C-alpha cells in the first residue's frame, strides 16, 4: 500500500495515507526528500518544505489556507497552524475552460418506464404525509401493507417529517415543493398522500401544485374524514399494489439515469480516492447522455471558480454566482460565520479548512461542463452535470437530490454513516479500513485506489457496473437494513 501522496506537483504539502512515524523519510522524486518532524496521522498533511507564517498552504494545486505560524519541513499541517484564506462576498469573472468529456456509447439498463417519460429504478409504494401530525399513521399503514406486497412492488415506505403546518413564507413553500416532487418521483410506482385535514399544506393546496395525475397511481386520504384512517389507508395502498404490481422492467437508455452526488463524514482521503472516483463516474455517465447532480453549496466555497469556469455559457455562470452568493447571504442574515464548515469528524479525518474540504468535495463533479443550475426543489430538466442549491447537511441534501429527480445517490464517506434517503443511497468509503469494519454500511471500497496494481479505470468500471446493478434492482446496504429517511430544508419561522 502507498503510504503517502503528493496530489499535485505544485503542492507544498503531502497527505499521509497511513499513520507516519516521526523521523520517517518520505521520498517523492530525486530532488524532494522530507523527514517527518513528528507523527502524522493518516489522512493528515505534512509540510514538504518550510512554510513561513502568513504563507499559502497548497494542496490539489490550489490554496487551502494560510499558515498561522512558521511550519518546518516535515511538520504536521492542520487546524493548529492553518486558517482559511477566504473572504465573504466576492467578485467573479467568467473564464470558461474546455471540457475533455466526449460523447460515448449510451447503453441500456432495465428500469420502470413511467407515463411521463421518466424512469424509475424501483417500483415502490410511497406513503407521504402532508404534515408531521400523521407520521405515525403513515408508518402504521406501511407496516400493515407490507403483508400485501405482490408482483413487481418491492416495498411500501412511509416518509416522516415534522413540517407542513405552522410555517411561513419560503419555509412553507419549500415543504410543499419537496412533497410534490416526491409524490411524482419515478421510483414510486404508486403514492398515498396522507393528510390530517387542517394543516397549511392540505390537499386543496397541494393538488393544484401536482398538476396532471394518474388516479390509479396517486391516492389521497384525509385522516380527519376517516372513521379508521389506518384501515382506510391500508385499503388504498392495497389498491395501489394491485395496480402497479403488474409493472415490469424494460430496456431503457442509460441516458435516462439521474444520479445525485453527495459526500459526508469526509477524511483526508476523500479528495484522493472516493471523490475523484465519483467524478470519473459522473464524466462517464454524462458522456452517455445521462445526468448527475452536485449539491452542498457551502462545500463549494473556496472551489466555486472551478465550477463557474466549467459553465457551458455566461447565463449558467451568472446563475452559479447567485447560487454561491445567495448561500453566503443566508449565513450572514442568520449571523453565522460563512467559512467555519468542516465538522469535528472532518477535522479528525484530516480536513483543516473549508477550502480543503471544498476542493476535495467538488471533485465529485468530474470535468464535464455545467449544463444546469437548479433552485432548491427544482426538478432537473437538462441532461449533463447540474448544480443544485441545498445545504451540506447529509439528510437535507440527499432528500433535495431525490426531489430534483435523482433515482440513486452516490455518497462518499471517510468516517461512515448508516443514513438513507428516499432513493437508493450507495455508500462509497474513502479508505479500506472503513469498508472492512462497516460492511453493513458500505457498498463500495474506493480505498483500493491506494493499493499497487489498482488502476483508476478498472475501479471506475467496477463502480459503474455496480450502479447499473442497483438501477436494475440490487439493494444497497441501507435498503437491506430497511432504512428510508427524508429531511426538508428548514429556513424560516415556526409559528
Write the layout of secondary structure elements.
Layout: E1 4-5, E2 13-16, E3 25-29, E4 32-35, E5 45-47, E6 56-59, E7 62-67, E8 76-77, E9 82-83, E10 108-113, E11 119-120, E12 124-129, H1 135-145, E13 156-158, H2 169-183, E14 188-195, H3 203-210, E15 218-222, H4 229-244, E16 250-253, E17 258-263, H5 274-287, E18 291-294, H6 304-308, H7 314-333, H8 344-348, H9 354-361, E19 370-374, E20 384-388, H10 394-403, E21 408-413, E22 425-429, H11 432-437, E23 444-445, H12 456-471, H13 477-480
Parallel strand pairs: 12-13, 12-14, 14-15, 17-18, 17-21, 18-20, 19-20, 21-22, 22-23
Antiparallel strand pairs: 1-2, 2-5, 3-4, 5-8, 6-7, 7-9, 10-11, 10-16
Amino acid at each position: 500500500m502507498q503510504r503517502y501522496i503528493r496530489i499535485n506537483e505544485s503542492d507544498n504539502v503531502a497527505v499521509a495515507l497511513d499513520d507516519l512515524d516521526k523521523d520517517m523519510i518520505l521520498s517523492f522524486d530525486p530532488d524532494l526528500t522530507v523527514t517527518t518532524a513528528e507523527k502524522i496521522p493518516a489522512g493528515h498533511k505534512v509540510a514538504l518544505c518550510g512554510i513561513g507564517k502568513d504563507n499559502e498552504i497548497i494542496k490539489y494545486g490550489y490554496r487551502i489556507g494560510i499558515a498561522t505560524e512558521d511550519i518546518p519541513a516535515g511538520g504536521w499541517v492542520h487546524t493548529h497552524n492553518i486558517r482559511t484564506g477566504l473572504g465573504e462576498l466576492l467578485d467573479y469573472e467568467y473564464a470558461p475552460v474546455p471540457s475533455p468529456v466526449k460523447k460515448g456509447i449510451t447503453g441500456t439498463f432495465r428500469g420502470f418506464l413511467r407515463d411521463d417519460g421518466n424512469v424509475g429504478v424501483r417500483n415502490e409504494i410511497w406513503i407521504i404525509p402532508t404534515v408531521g401530525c400523521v407520521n405515525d399513521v403513515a408508518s402504521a399503514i406501511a407496516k400493515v401493507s407490507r403483508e400485501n406486497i405482490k408482483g413487481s412492488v418491492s416495498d411500501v415506505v412511509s416518509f416522516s417529517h415534522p413540517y407542513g403546518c405552522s410555517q411561513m413564507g419560503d419555509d412553507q413553500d419549500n415543504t410543499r415543493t419537496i412533497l410534490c416532487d416526491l409524490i411524482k418521483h419515478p421510483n414510486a410506482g404508486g403514492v398515498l398522500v396522507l393528510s390530517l385535514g387542517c394543516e397549511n399544506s392540505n390537499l386543496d393546496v397541494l393538488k393544484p401544485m401536482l398538476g396532471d395525475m394518474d388516479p390509479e397511481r396517486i391516492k389521497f386520504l384525509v385522516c380527519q374524514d376517516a372513521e379508521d384512517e389506518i384501515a382506510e389507508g391500508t385499503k388504498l395502498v392495497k389498491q395501489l399494489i394491485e395496480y402497479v404490481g403488474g409493472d415490469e422492467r424494460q430496456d431503457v437508455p442509460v441516458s435516462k439515469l439521474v444520479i445525485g452526488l453527495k459526500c459526508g463524514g469526509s477524511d483526508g482521503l476523500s479528495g484522493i480516492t472516493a471523490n475523484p472516483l465519483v467524478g470519473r463516474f459522473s464524466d462517464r455517465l454524462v458522456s452517455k447522455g445521462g445526468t448527475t447532480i452536485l449539491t452542498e453549496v457551502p462545500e463549494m466555497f473556496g472551489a466555486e471558480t472551478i465550477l463557474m469556469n466549467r459553465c457551458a455559457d455566461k447565463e449558467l455562470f451568472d446563475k452559479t454566482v447567485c447560487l454561491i452568493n445567495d448561500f453566503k447571504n443566508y449565513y450572514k442574515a442568520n449571523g453565522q460565520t460563512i467559512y467555519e464548515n468542516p465538522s469535528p469528524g472532518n477535522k479528525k479525518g484530516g480536513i483543516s479548512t473549508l477550502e480543503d474540504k471544498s476542493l476535495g468535495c467538488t471533485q465529485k463533479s468530474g470535468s464535464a461542463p455545467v449544463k444546469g443550475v437548479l433552485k432548491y426543489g427544482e426538478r432537473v430538466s437538462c441532461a449533463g452535470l447540474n448544480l443544485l442549491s441545498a445545504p451540506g447537511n447529509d439528510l437535507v441534501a440527499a432528500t433535495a437530490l431525490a426531489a430534483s429527480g435523482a433515482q440513486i445517490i452516490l455518497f462518499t464517506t471517510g468516517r461512515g454513516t448508516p443514513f438513507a434517503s428516499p432513493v437508493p443511497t450507495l455508500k462509497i468509503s474513502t479508505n479500506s479500513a472503513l469498508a472492512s469494519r462497516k460492511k453493513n454500511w458500505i457498498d463500495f471500497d474506493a480505498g483500493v485506489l491506494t493499493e499497487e496494481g489498482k488502476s483508476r479505470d478498472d475501479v471506475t468500471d467496477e463502480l459503474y457496473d455496480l450502479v447499473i446493478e442497483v438501477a436494475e434492482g440490487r439493494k444497497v446496504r441501507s435498503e437491506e437494513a430497511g432504512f428510508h429517511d427524508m429531511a426538508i430544508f428548514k429556513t424560516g419561522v415556526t409559528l
